[in-house]
# Entry
Amino acid sequence: MKEYLSDKFNYEKYIHRLQLHANYGYENFIVGQTMVDGKIKSEKGYFLNLCEEAAGDKDYPHILILDEINRIDLARLFGEAFSCIENRNDPVDLPFKKDGVTLQLCVPENIYIIGTMNEIDFSLERLDFALRRRFLWFKHGYNQDTLSEMLTGIKNESDRIHFIDKATALNMEICSTPELGEQYEIGHVFFAEIQNILKSFSSQRLYRGSAKSSQEPVKILWKISILPMLTAYLDNIDVDSKKRILQGLERTFYGK
# Structure
């Protein structure tokens, strides 16, 4: 435990991450079959191999991050894992054999599974209830302190604070807009893109130029990132209402 808490501990080898997508399924995650020398052969999937690895290294936790779980059929992906993640250390037979031996899935106590999703892209009602009741659910929305920690590239403190205040004000207006709401808040990553835009501006122009020129990076961020996203969110309302809402949000973010 002392080694685990020390700076010298290589924690990265115990953090595993999968980017899920529509073509990733049970065969990749649990077990599948492939042709080898003209014969069908069973191949262990990512999660089955990880469980066996973690079972042989019980002194440390293994964390599996499943990114964008809304992009796949979760019931099909997990299969027998539904039961195994609830009944730890209790092996379940799989409908496959390897070298004549029936494969088993057994999830050890030291595996922790974290799934991420965007609730705008996927309704919780569509999630398999068997999965929902086996996980704790947390909402991680916009937080200005978190954004401040991400904006280390903005060295001028007053500029950083001003930008964060504008980002916060924008999200507050989004939350209070009936056609949008809290679930449409802009996330930290979108606002953090301002740092890459700032790099394309010289220090002289950004900090010593006119107020108009110092607003240019914020205007660019709005046009290339935030505006297209908000426009898509408002796609189902009439043109005049959409224009009115977007103009109001624009004024909040970088208008006078």
